[in-house]
Amino acid sequence: MGRGWKITAWIVGPALLLIGVLLVAIASFDWNRMKPTINARVSAMIGRPFAIEGDLSVRWRREGDAGGPSAVMPWPEFIAQNVTIANPAWATRQANFAQLQTIRFRVAPLPLVVHRIEIPVLFLTLPAIDLERNAQGQSNWDFTLAPDTQPSAWKLDLRAIGFDRGRITLDDAASKVSLRVAVEPLQRAIPFDEILAQQSSDAREAAGKAVGAGAREVLAKAGDGKPRSTTATYQFAWQAEGSYQGATARGHGKTGAVLALQEADQPFPVQADVTIGDNRIALVGTLTDPLHLAALDLRLWLSGSSMAGLYPLTGLTLPDTPRYATEGHLTAQLRRGASHYSYDSFRGRVGGSDLAGDLVFDTGGARPKLSGKLTSRLLRFADLAPLIGADTNAEKEQRGDATPQPSDKVLPVEPFRTDRWQAMDADVAFSATRIERGAALPVNALSTHLAMGDGVLHLDPLAFDFAGGKVDSQLQLDGTKAPMHGAIKLKARHVKLKELFPTFEPMRTSFGEINGDASLVAHGNAVGALLGTSSGEVKLLMNDGAISKTLLETAGLNVGNIIIGKLFGDRTVKINCAASDLDAADGLFQTRLFVLDTEDAIIGISGTVNLASERLDLDVRPQSKGVRFLSLRSPLYVKGTLKDPDVGVQPGPLILRSGGAVALAVVAPVAALLPLIATSKDDQPNTCATVLEQLRASASGAARQAKPPTRPAAVH
User: Among residues 556, 296, 523, which one has the least CA distance to residue 410?
Assistant: First the structure.
């Protein structure tokens, strides 16, 4: 025998001898004698009773999937019958945390030489697991492990867990969740792609029934992003029922048979279709490496009556919306305290509006953060109504969160949910190609950037292409204050009257525009409360328009239509210029200037509108031009409320030509409105420039007449 062979024999021989001794010891030992020791040591390690109450035995099997010498050498397979793990003393639902008919695992013999216990798969037969968490947050799945007094020479290497039919119960008092889950083997293994196709069809069909036929087509156009296909098959089905925060919960799904704990190239297939209340969550995909950098790769469908209903399920602070359905590709890296979720290439339907984009949700940092970009080709105003508390009582009652609108109030009282704003931050850009409020009022190309941090919401910019013009604004709402504080700055330019009122024949050839500015601060938890406490100013100019009682009725302006009806009857009146400058203090809007220059008369309006009480206190003073006469030439009063205005004739004589509107304009701050006059896009002159100059001249003349004469200086 050569020298090299002798050296190899001296090295390998003792190792083989040691393995042989171990194998003989394992094969001949009565392992039931070890049960008391094993039970005691495991109980001490996990801090609660552990027991192998049945037989503990070993049998020998070759591992066909192993390579090299391990494929030839028989492996010991340990089998423990009737294993129980008790609950902690505080648990009241069940005596045991887990009970298993059998635990079975094989140990690789060669790694034992280097003190490593390598277990390819731990099989659990008929597991019955009862999960419990009390109202104080104690959970029976948290084990208090005994501290190591000294490092162990042995290391455990568990590669995967396999399971059989079984049941799982969850009673979570802290989250108000109660579920019962039963797991059964399928009659045949089902390929991943077959389940993905079936779930896609089911989810889109359900979305069509819940949101409307258009949702089915929108979801079918969802992006190409889909979970990575896998050769792993679905081998078990599960059914669940119970309750989640008071809502009925039920669901079903499928899983694979072996969960790889470490191998990133062995994804575990999962599928679920769960309904909680009226929210439906469906998914198909894989879970990879759950013990380390756990990864999810899913096709995800969401639907329900309002996106706000997802908050208890996901922790996402989303707005109230009409019924919705979305489909997209969700990937996630799951780390304790710092998980990362990406919902890519999703499409959805919200009411009658479409929605698409990419979102990212991170749980690291002081608060979770949602960021991304959303787009919509068609966004209906009706679908925006819940965001400002203007949705109907029927819609709110359907969601179960109705705040009844008082019968005598016009301004919305539906509160903002500011209590959720500090639960997360946000940085989301949104744009819509076209916004629609019926066929007669087009609003186009909305764009905004939503930023929310520390409970403060910013929309900057919040911009619309509106009736051929542009509305630019910035909005801030501070949800950390009680009540909420708000501020808005708004600038409207070149809003075309013929596009604003396309069905009103006298406007079709008009070159008139609306230009305006507003700057307000307020506090309150609803739109009505904010307007009722607002302070600031509002300025508005309209030139070359027309108005009628019928037009104002159609627009829902019941105060204006009564005034116009009293003055002009039901005929159409051409307006050369309408100018208003309002000062607001704690919800009381007072006219500094409010003048309508028509072809027949100049109409001056003075007084106040109290948005806190929604009460009106206005004087309307018309002055006829030349020989033309109004239907009514006496001053009017406007009293009552926005809901039920009272318009009548003031007692006293008719207004003479020398009185009326011009007298009001004399003291008005005409110069403040001059910056709103801008040359139109069609290079048409703005008639408001002429009207305001005339009013300013009248004011200057009146001021000179009212000024007392000065005495000449005495000559000494």
Answer: 556
Q: 343 phi and psi, to 5 degrees?
A: -110, 95
Torsion of CA 706, 711, 713, 716, to 10 degrees: -170
8 Å CB contact between 237 and 256: no
According to DSSP, residue 343 is labeled E
The mean pLDDT of the chain is 81
* pLDDT more than 70, % of the chain: 79
SS3 507: helix
pLDDT, tens digit, for every residue of 635-681? 888 999 988 888 888 876 554 443 444 444 444 467 777 778 765 45
What is the identity of the amino acid at 201? Answer: S
Amino acid at 102: T
Same domain, 113 and 28: yes
- Are 467 and 445 contacting, i.e. CB atoms less than 8 angstroms apart? no
Peptide bond into 386 cis (omega under 30): no
482's CB contacts (< 8 A; 6+ apart) are: none
- C-alpha 341, offset from chain centre: 15
Residues 127 and 202 in one domain: no
Q: Which domain holds residue 351?
A: 190-235+263-365
125 CB burial (10 A radius; 0-12, 13-18, 19+): middle
